[in-house]
TrEMBL record:
Residues 169-264 form the MDMPI C-terminal domain. Coiled coil: none annotated. Keywords: Isomerase, Pyruvate. One of its GO terms (molecular function) is isomerase activity. This is Maleylpyruvate isomerase family mycothiol-dependent enzyme. Pfam families: MDMPI_C, MDMPI_N. Residues 15-153 form the Mycothiol-dependent maleylpyruvate isomerase metal-binding domain. InterPro entries: DinB/YfiT-like, Maleyloyr_isom, MDMPI_C-term_domain, MDMPI_metal-binding.
Length: 274
């Protein structure tokens, strides 16, 4: 047996991004591994450590036994603390050690995916110790690793792959959350609509509609007389949604129309990653 067809796109997206990450970091000098990235509190080494750590958990490896230092200002929640273990345990690893472990993890994980025969609905223990379906775990993994590829690209000044397979998985993941952001988190009024017009390597126009009960839905049809319209480029959309920039810092990349207070409420709620 082989990978279920509905999972193949997620495996392909993971492969594309993890190989890109490997190509980015393999030639780096020791000092370059310490460069800060847009991911709060994490260096290039930290992001690669996270990539290795999560894929080791997907492989079923035991988690490291490690005590975190108390001065990690960016670690505020239990979820962040859980993730930081895999990162902090590698903070003193050398560049050759990092590259070697990354390459070995890619080989192991690629073999696991080639031999994966479980159904998409199979319940698995995903990263962070949460039980979820195999399909969701693989979709979220493809999303996560593409976002971290982009973190590394910005840190290293090597832009690219904004329209890769992982970008399209990311688009779908972020759009699925958008109705909650608009209707619940930002409190858009009942019987209103908000239009998002995104241009660039990944383009889309989506309308979030809020019904009489305050529930949000999303579709690709334009709205006549929306309460607000937010237009921006794809990279800015991702950076805002993943907490890599703030609405204030991204203001020049935003074009908005309609209810200004609603726009501000949406932008204030836009970051959805932990």
């Amino acid at each position: 047996m082989s990978l279920h067809p509905s999972l193949q796109s997620y495996a392909d997206a993971w492969t594309h991004s993890v190989e890109a990450i490997s190509e980015l970091v393999t030639p780096l000098a020791e000092g370059e591994w310490n460069r800060a990235t847009p991911c709060p509190g994490w260096s290039v080494r930290d992001i690669v450590s996270h990539v290795i750590g999560v894929d080791c958990e997907m492989l079923g490896d035991p988690r490291p036994i490690h005590t975190l230092p108390r001065d990690l200002y960016h670690v505020q929640t239990e979820g962040q603390r859980y993730q930081e273990i895999q990162v902090d345990v590698r903070r003193h690893h050398t560049a050759p050690e990092m590259v070697s472990e990354l390459e070995y993890t890619i080989i192991r994980r690629s073999r696991q995916l080639r031999n994966e025969s479980r159904e998409p609905g199979t319940i698995v223990r995903g990263p962070r110790g949460v039980e979820e379906t195999l399909e969701y775990a693989m979709r979220r993994r493809a999303f996560d690793i593409w976002v971290h590829e982009q973190d590394l690209r910005r840190a290293l000044g090597t832009p690219g792959n904004l329209d890769s397979p992982g970008a399209h998985v990311t688009r779908d993941m972020l759009l699925a959350i958008l109705p909650k952001v608009v209707a619940k988190d930002a409190g858009a009024p009942a019987n209103s609509a908000v239009v998002f017009d995104v241009h660039g390597p990944v383009e889309f126009l989506r309308t979030v509609r809020v019904d009489a009960e305050g529930k949000g839905t999303i579709d690709g049809a334009p709205s006549l007389g929306p309460a607000a319209t937010i237009a921006l480029d794809w990279e800015t959309y991702v950076r805002l949604a993943c907490g890599r920039t703030t609405p204030e810092a991204a203001r020049d990349a935003l074009k908005t129309e309609g209810d200004a207070s609603l726009v501000e409420a949406i932008l204030a709620s836009f970051a959805v990653t932990p």
